[in-house]
Amino acid sequence: MADVLIVVLLVLVLAALVVVGVLLARRGRSAPKAEAPRADPFGSGDVDAVRGDPRTLGPGAIAEIRGESYAVRGTLRLTEDGWSWTEHLLENAAGRRFWLSVEEDPELELVLFTALTDVTVTPGKTIELDGRTYRHQESGTATFTAEGTTGLDSGGTVHYQDYAAGDDARLSLESYGQSGKWEVSRGEVLSRYEVRIYPPAG
């Protein structure tokens, strides 16, 4: 009789184990697998990790452009209707100054601008300058805050008119505050691979 009871108990234990195993297998099969977030295959994350992220630029950093080093003297942070971008005042070893525009719209665009102090232009649909025709792209009024050395107040407004000639040439007209005077800068679009960023020391 004892042997029969042992056999019955073993059968019941085995049956219970089979039921538990089936239930666990079904639960594992039906549980949805969490999908890994999809990354932008054309994003610049890897490039930023190797060459530094231009979006993090600020006073005291170094920007190396086409092998030449520039100190970031100051930064303008601009906003308009929910959009934001930055402009950085750069200075090279010879003391020459340039502006680097950093904007995502939606792709990251880097433009190196040189001020044209001896040029006067009037905004319109097109502007002819040095044999090139620049076509109007956009205009507006943005608010800005300044950091470091920029030659501007700590904050204010700027009216702008942006022009382009081809894929890589830009022309920017900016008027700060109520001056009514347009400051003209000619820009060149940079490849992401032409720019390397070094954060401020310390």
From TrEMBL:
The keyword Transmembrane applies. Keywords: Membrane, Transmembrane, Transmembrane helix. InterPro entries: DUF4178. Pfam families: DUF4178. The chain crosses the membrane at residues 6-25. Residues 33-53 are annotated as: Disordered. Residues 59-191 form the DUF4178 domain. This is DUF4178 domain-containing protein. The lineage of its organism: Bacteria, Bacillati, Actinomycetota, Actinomycetes, Pseudonocardiales.
